Structure formats: structure tokens, C-alpha cells
Amino acid sequence: MEYTTLGSTGMEVSRLCLGCMSFGSSDWRGWVLEDEESKAIIERAIDLGINFFDTANMYSKGESERILGEALEGYREQSVVATKGYFQMREDDPNSGGLSRKAIEQELDASRDRLGMDTIDLYQIHRWDDDTPIETTLRALDDAVRRGHVRYIGASSMWAHQFADSLYTSDRLGLERFVTMQNHYNLVYREEEREMLPFCENEDIGVMPWSPLARGYLTRPHAKIDATKRGETEEHMYDHPYRDGGGQEINERVAEIAADKGVTMAQISLSWLLHKEWVDAPIIGTTSIEHLEQAVDALELSLSSSEIAYLEEPYEPVAVSGHD
Ligand SMILES: NC(=O)c1ccc[n+]([C@@H]2O[C@H](COP(=O)([O-])OP(=O)(O)OC[C@H]3O[C@@H](n4cnc5c(N)ncnc54)[C@H](OP(=O)(O)O)[C@@H]3O)[C@@H](O)[C@H]2O)c1
Hints:
The protein is of the alpha/beta class. The chain contains 11 helices and 10 strands. Helix 8 (247-261) runs antiparallel to helix 11. It is globular. NADP nicotinamide-adenine-dinucleotide phosphate binds at residues 19-22, 54, 126, 156-157, 182, 210-216, 219, 228, 230, 264, 266, 283-288, 291, 294. GO terms for molecular function: oxidoreductase activity.
């Protein structure tokens, strides 16, 4: 396994982060794995040298955090655990979501309980909260770090101006800064290259893109997107503009280069992301040990600059997706 320093944290993380949205309960989303199968994947990831895990309180309504915590028993100190809060956890409790001090303190404690961890390595805000001033959120997160409940704080999809505002506010008030950005980035969604990624590079922010394989769209020919349970049932597959702009042509070029090199489309798509210097660790989502192993093998793949240019060429700007 290859390791990299996550932004300015000084922490070493594997170049692949295991996304735990696929683990929890199929009651939440039909394609999600239950307890035992989820743990088998997490255990294989540990065997392969992956030490970086991303979950969120909302994934399977907390089940993902519980499963991850149990699977990491005996391996807690060697692992870097990231979770997130923001989305409303209980329908009858509006304060179980958002980024108020009340929501952060209560939902962070609930995450720590489910994970069975006193301290979370990286606590991320899942989205921007228009109803809470960022200063209030940052003060609550800074206090969580002082209490020893959280080691580092990070952010996820938002506008670059909002992220800049967050960093500026932290610096002005002497509060903990966000040290990571978890954003939507892959070969068929590159809008983040305009503002967010260059900004992260300047600020030494650790970048951990989500849906690096466009939720499966970049792993098989576009006509076969419904071939898996997730392809068939994933409600966000069609929300994102993956087929717009040059998406279909890119999908075909990924297939072409994969065939030339005798590897899978998923490996080419992941390798493209791993060649981007501003990316620290893509968050891979899988329900298959074989696919996990393929992702690890993709670390060995090398793409020439002309192959990268060929893959990128058909891209045309698409609608912003992943945040409002
Ligand atoms: N911050 C946010 O707002 C946000 C949003 C979305 C996701 N996330 C994070 O990002 C993680 C990854 O997201 P994602 O699941 O959408 O990522 P993804 O890696 O883009 O997509 C996963 C899909 O690709 C398929 N796949 C993976 N490897 C494959 C291979 N070698 N061959 C064929 N198909 C393959 C998977 O199928 P199989 O299951 O069959 O392998 C699955 O359907 C999540 O677990 C979560 O931690 C964060």
C-alpha cells in the first residue's frame, strides 16, 4: 500500500480511503450490505494496508458507524477514522440536523457512541448550513477538538467561496481550521477544477474525492449501467450529470484504454484520479472484495500524459452537482 500525508495534518493515510456508505442496512438503500458482509470487506481492506475509513452518521441511519467501529476493534490505533454530521437524523427532531452548536454536540456524541471511539480522527461537516453562521459552527467544532472528542475537522461539498470564508473565519478567530475537503470529483464531473481544487492546493488542504467512479458509471459501458443492483436502484445515479457534456464519449474512451492495457474500466478511471496531484485519497465505494482488490491494484497503474489528455478531451462543463 502507498501512503501519503493528508494535507497539513501530518497524518499518514493510505492513498485509498474506504467509503462506508455501502455498509449498514438494505432497509436504508437496497444495494447496501448488512453487518457480516460489510465487515468482511473492511477486514480485507485492513489486510491490504488500507488505514483510512470514511463514514457518516446518516449512512444507514447510524448502522454504518456501528459496523465500522466493531470491525476496527483491535485495529483502532492504526486506523484513521473520518465521519460526518449535518443531515437530519430523526424525522421528529429538527435539531438532529444542521450545524448549530446543539446539533454538533449531540450528534457528535451519538457518532462517538456508535463508533465506540472516545476520539474521532476527522470530523467533517457533510454540507454547508445556511441557517447557522459559520462562526458558531467553527466555535463548536473547535471546542470538540479542545475536549479531545475530535482530532481534526474537515468539510465536504460546498462552494469554494464558502470554504474560503470558513478558513478565513478560523484564522481571524484563532479557531481550528478545516484541514480536508471531501468533494465530488471524477472523470465525468470536473467542475471542482475551476475554483475548489486550486484553492485546496494553495491552502494545503487534504483532498478526498467522493464517488471517484461516478457511482459506477465509469466502471462499465454506459449502456450497461443497470447491470448491477446499485446501478438499477441507486436514486442518485441519474441526479448527477454524468451523461451530459462529453460523458458518454469519456465512458467509451475509458473502455478503449482499459482494453488496450488489459485492465478494467474502474482501474483506468481510478488511476486518472490518482494521477491528479491535488488528490490525496479518493474514497472508494464497493460491495465486492474483488473490486476492492482491483482498486488497490490500480495504484500500480501508470497513465501517460497523452492517455490522460485523451480521457479528458471530450469533457464539457456540466451543471454543478453534489451541493446547492
Ligand atoms: N460527502 C458526500 O456528500 C458523499 C457523497 C457520496 C459518497 N461519499 C463517500 O464516498 C464513498 C464512495 O462513494 P460511491 O460509492 O458513490 O463511489 P464510487 O466508487 O464512485 O462508486 C461505487 C460504485 O462503483 C462500483 N465499482 C467499484 N469498483 C468497481 C469495479 N472494479 N468494477 C465494477 N464496478 C465497480 C461499485 O460496485 P460494487 O459495489 O459492485 O463494487 C459501486 O456501484 C462513499 O462510501 C462515502 O464514504 C460522500
